[in-house]
Amino acid sequence: MVTVKKHPNFQGVFVVEDLEGKKLATENLVPGTKVYGEQLYQFEKKEYRVWDVFRSKLAASIEKGIKEVPIKEGTYVLYLGAASGTTPSHVSDIVGEKGKVFCVEFAPRVMRELLEVTALRSNMIPILADARIPISYRAFVEMVDTIYCDVAQPEQAKILVDNAEVYLRKKGKIMIAIKARSVDVTKEPTEVFKKEIKIMEDRGIKVLDVKRLDPFDKDHAMVLGEFL
Question: Which of 127, 147, 195, 222 has a CA 20 to 30 Å removed from the CA of 210?
Answer without folding.
Answer: 127
